[in-house]
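RETRY 2/3 - previous attempt timed out on the joint model. Re-submitting the same 300-residue input unchanged.
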Amino acid sequence: MHLGPYAGFIIAAYAVALAVVAGLIGWIIADHRAQMRTLHDLETRGISRRSSTREVA
Amino acid sequence: MPLLDLANPSRFLSLVDRVLPWLVVATVAVFAIGLYQALLVAPDDYQQGATVKIMFIHVPNAWLAMFCWVVMSIAALGTLVWRHPLADVAAKAAAPLGAAFTFLCLLTGSLWGRPMWGAYWVWDGRLTSVLVLFIMYLAVLALWRTVEDPSRAACAAAILTLVGAINLPIIKFSVYWWATLHQPASVMRLGAPTIHSSILVPLLIMGLAFMLLFLTLHLAAMRNEILRRRVRTLRLMQAQAGA
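RETRY 2/3 succeeded.
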């Protein structure tokens, strides 16, 4: 693959796209873990929604 | 599963848990094919040379920048008109994704513009209207963070989203309405695309890959938002029990 005289611009465009997409994925995974951890902590302390039993069923 | 059942957040979460792994696999597979086609198979453009490779990420991000706002606008109608319980969840989850895709559209366009136009930025209709779209995304994100009550924030964000939707036709037709360095539509236009199939096919595959990426991230972000609201509800219950 020969990128010619403007290789820097092409590589920079793909690198930034990769970084932003990776950042989005990382943020969503971290957010999911944080919410699940907080929910688990609250439920461990005996705080649960009234509808949770019905919804699971 | 009937469509109406998806209005139930628990059933929606169950569906997301089942669908998400398949979407991840499909996204990775289509990206692999798209990047192979874009970087190794597609020929250089006879005028732009290898810089045409930037198009394979710039154009899908431009499509998604507008598509995310369309999704948010439909969700805004769902919030204001139909009061669908997942509408504002969908709108809130789409906003940061739309902002990221718009940012990538602007940045990759700038990196493509410098070698082709001789400038990173020009204040023409297309670039300026996309910049306005980016600012609107930031405004919606700021609104969601500023108003603490989710239902009030949802109404305010929905109104702002519908007002901002006026910008979408301006972006689309800006290249026809005003003199611009930006080229007119080459794919989504009346009549056949003006791009040769050797470049069009990789572009469409990359477009599909980014669309799958959006769908995957949007569903995952909606799941997070539902969980966040459950946490909020439990904390309110905890506070009431302690009072």
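Helices of chain A lie at 7-44, 52-56. Closing ticket.
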